[in-house]
Write a structure and sequence with these properties.
Length: 483
């Protein structure tokens, strides 16, 4: 039963082959048995899950239908869940039980999804390896000595290991697409504003976006359908109609113009990944797509711009965790300053502290113009590059990451080398565009992803292309040995 996709589960439940309660019990047992190897969950909510599963079975017995009704999922542990710990992977929020549900959580619960628990993540979503969590590193099911990618690494490892069919993630600079690539999943970062950020603990508010991680594009369509939509409680949510993603997966790719940016095949790219990307291009050509080389000339500035803007917003967002309004409080403070200082020094790990310092520096009176404002200008240039490209092509294609999953600990002494792993993903966040990563082969037994980018609100086009690709390839069906 654990091999089933969301689409297959929906059919099985509709045909009464099994109940949501049976499925939920099977998966909870599997998690208890296998997750100690992976560390992909921070909190399991067994009782709540069984309650939700029984309620979903009752709704189906009453004639209700729906692709998510009774489907087991899990939430990255930065989506607020009422009465359940929402830790953000941090000691700072180790004892925080959210008093309300995030919009994404509430919407999926209303659609009948069964939440099994909260998944591990890099602390405050800062990282590309899921090593910065207060709850320990997550392991990649494809090779337990390697990272699963981050920051949604718990969601990715759990889905890749068939502990559950799909999970939510968030993507500020690649944190859905990059772990999807490194664990052989399909992951989609929607257009900025497509999915509500209300109740999604902020890292960098102008870049953060929630989205689905699953094994297939078909399943991403199902989960995204349950997450997307206008939310008056999020001032950056966009009131744009949500299409029926599942109904639009079968469009023909004949004549689809795919742009391949030369900058995506830069020096740092593992040549074996480049080859797999070229193979995926050939596959799409066979399906009728037309390939064109394009240029995104400002891409080289993306990493420096992102690593100014994201820390700047983080330093502002994280100021609320001061031991008074939110978060861990130190023992026996001498005075208020001591309370702030020690609470924050004890509550935040080293990567989060590094980002807060960088961000506060970039925003300070003397350096605001030199760093923050410059970075915002670069951001506009990057967006303009994409707009120009999308005048000529329907979709952009390239690698998701320059390298396959690295060994746990390999980049610990050099944070910048980890930042460089985001080179192909962060441009979409800077421009607010939707992006998807899909499985495209293996290097040394480790999965490799291909990334697709589309114009604003064209998530449906990404899912359509990925689904057609998946009908003609079988990379996404491979599962890691031992899981
Ligand atoms: N790796 C990037 C960072 O550390 C992106 C993280 C994310 O998308 N949440 O900022």
């Amino acid at each position: 039963m654990h091999q089933l996709t969301l689409a297959e589960i929906a059919r099985g439940l509709a045909d009464k082959k099994f109940s949501s309660e049976e499925l939920t019990k099977t998966l909870l047992a599997r998690i208890a048995q296998l997750d100690p190897q992976l560390n992909s969950f921070i909190t399991l909510t067994e009782d709540l899950a069984l309650e939700q599963a029984k309620a979903a079975d009752a709704r189906r017995a009453n004639g209700e239908t729906g692709a998510l009704l009774g489907a087991p999922i899990a939430h990255k542990d930065l989506f607020c869940t009422q009465g359940v710990r929402t830790s953000c992977g941090s000691k700072m929020l180790d004892n925080f039980k959210a008093p309300y549900d995030a919009t994404v959580v509430a919407k999926l619960a209303a659609a009948g999804a069964v939440s099994l628990g909260k998944t591990n993540m890099d602390e405050f979503a800062m990282g590309s390896a899921n090593e910065s969590s207060y709850y320990g590193a997550v392991k990649n099911p494809w090779n337990l000595e390697h990272v699963p990618g981050g920051s949604s690494g718990g969601s990715a490892a759990a889905v890749a290991a068939r502990l559950l069919p799909a999970a939510t993630g968030t993507d500020t600079g690649g944190s859905i697409r990059q772990p999807a690539a490194l664990t052989n999943l399909t992951g989609l970062k929607p257009t900025y504003g497509r999915v509500s950020r209300w109740g999604m603990i902020a890292y960098a508010s102008s870049l953060d976006q929630g989205g689905p991680l699953a094994r297939t594009a078909e399943d991403c369509a199902i989960l995204l359908q349950g997450m997307a939509g206008f939310d008056p409680q999020d001032s950056t949510s966009i009131d744009e109609p949500v299409p029926d993603f599942s109904a639009n997966l079968n469009g023909s790719l004949k004549g689809l113009r795919i742009g391949v940016p030369s900058e995506f095949f830069s020096e740092g790219l593992d040549p074996r990944i480049a080859e797999l990307v070229h193979n995926s291009i050939k596959e799409l050509e066979k399906l009728g797509a037309v390939i064109k080389t394009i240029s995104l000339p400002n891409m080289q500035h993306a990493i420096p711009a992102y690593y100014v803007i994201a820390p700047a917003e983080a330093s502002s967002n994280l100021s609320r965790f001061d031991g008074v309004r939110f978060g861990h409080r130190c023992e026996d403070p001498k005075d208020l300053t001591d309370l702030y200082k020690r609470s924050r020094a004890e509550g935040f790990g080293p990567e989060v502290q590094r980002r807060i310092l960088v961000g506060a520096y970039a925003l300070s009176a003397g350096y605001y113009d030199a760093y923050y404002l410059q970075a915002q200008k670069i951001r506009r240039l990057i967006k303009n590059d994409f707009m120009a490209a999308f005048n000529e092509v329907d979709i952009i294609l390239g690698p998701t990451t320059p390298n396959p999953a690295w060994k746990i600990g390999a980049k610990n002494s050099d944070p910048v080398s980890a930042y460089l792993e985001d080179v192909y993903t962060i441009t979409a966040n800077l421009a607010g565009l939707p992006g998807l990563s899909m499985p495209a082969g293996f290097v040394d037994g480790l999965p490799v992803g291909v990334q697709l980018l589309a114009p604003y609100f064209q998530e449906g086009r990404l899912l359509n292309v990925a689904h057609q690709y998946q009908l003609n390839t079988d990379w996404h069906t491979r599962s890691p040995a031992g899981f």
